[in-house]
User: Fold this.
Amino acid sequence: MALLIILFDRPADLDGSGYRERSRNWIAELTRLDGFVEFSAQWNALRMSPNTMVLIRLSSPEAAIRAISDPALALMFDDMRAHGCHNIMAHPFKNSDLIPAPIIKEVH
Assistant:
């Protein structure tokens, strides 16, 4: 497994910029990435920049590297900028050989 992490700032006016409407298309684009497994998005609780983080779980580090260089992703970032997003960064990460697998705590 691997992660593609996308960080960015949303526009202040989500509706006036078209962000809210277009974001559905961007999510669909991400789910079409080769090796796609899972998608989630979070907002920065401290309201600091970058204020949005998207986590895309992919099947392998190779899939994450392919995703970061996919022309469709570059076009999506251009479209995001056109709809008011800025400070866009994307980083592929693979599982560490030194750190153990994630520890999951059950919530009751």
Remarks:
- Strands lie at 2-9, 36-43, 52-58, 86-94.
- The radius of gyration is 15 Å.
- The helical segments are 19-31, 61-68, 71-82.
- Residues 13 and 54 are 19 Å apart (CA to CA).
